[in-house]
């Protein structure tokens, strides 16, 4: 058996994906959080800004901010759900039992990533549909590009959640990682303040944060009717960051908490 085959087994990865999806199917609260929460939060923003007039030739505040939040909300929700779910596997002893089988760490994390990636696709489709129908979100570009970027953002949240879970010893600690990992990216992504108006060192920090590229990709879709080179580059950066986080999670994953 080759080294690659020994490390990664598509059959075991698929089995892990199926197991996680079956667990999600019976966890109605988690399903509601993943599928409905982003739409509800977006609805709050719509109610806040629906009566704010747009400047001549400019999109409304909701069209501008709501579009980018289609990437931020899935990222935050999937980070929280995934980090807690993996931590429960470890603290309950399930992870230790699984890793005594031929299942490798990479099989386990890819299975988790695939399962939550499928959930993210449903989440993105529901959120984009609600935003463009109930909330009248106006997007210049194709909606499938918005869905694609939202899924990429959610997968980034999944990968970072799996990585964060490796360093947490309790669910409370897993939640504590959210402001450490999520808030700096949200503050510096260019949504609150344009990046070109930031201090030079803040721009430098922003340049290495993946959520910056997710927001920029959505802004490109909001400005252009077709996918731009900048948008595809940004999507590639987000996907690469997710793969890197997943690889780091596989390298740091512990069988059980101390």
UniProtKB/TrEMBL annotation:
Q: Where are the transmembrane segments?
A: 31-49, 69-87, 108-131, 143-167, 174-193, 235-253
Q: Which PROSITE patterns match?
A: ABC_TM2
InterPro entries assigned to the protein according to its UniProt record, in alphabetical order: ABC-2_transporter_component (IPR051449), ABC2_TM (IPR013525), ABC2_TM_bact-type (IPR047817), ABC_2_transport (IPR000412)
Family matches, as Pfam families: ABC2_membrane
CC terms in the record's Gene Ontology section: ATP-binding cassette (ABC) transporter complex
Single Gene Ontology BP annotation: response to antibiotic
UniProt membrane topology term: Multi-pass membrane protein
Q: Does the keyword Signal apply?
A: no
Locations listed in the record: Cell membrane
A GO term for molecular function: ABC-type transporter activity
**Alphabetic keyword roster:** Antibiotic resistance, Cell membrane, Membrane, Transmembrane, Transmembrane helix, Transport
Annotated ABC transmembrane type-2 domain ranges read: 29-256
Family membership, please give it.
Answer: Belongs to the ABC-2 integral membrane protein family.
Q: Which PANTHER family match?
A: MEMBRANE COMPONENT OF ABC TRANSPORTER YHHJ-RELATED, TRANSPORT PERMEASE PROTEIN
- Protein name, UniProt field: Transport permease protein
Species annotation: Geodermatophilus nigrescens
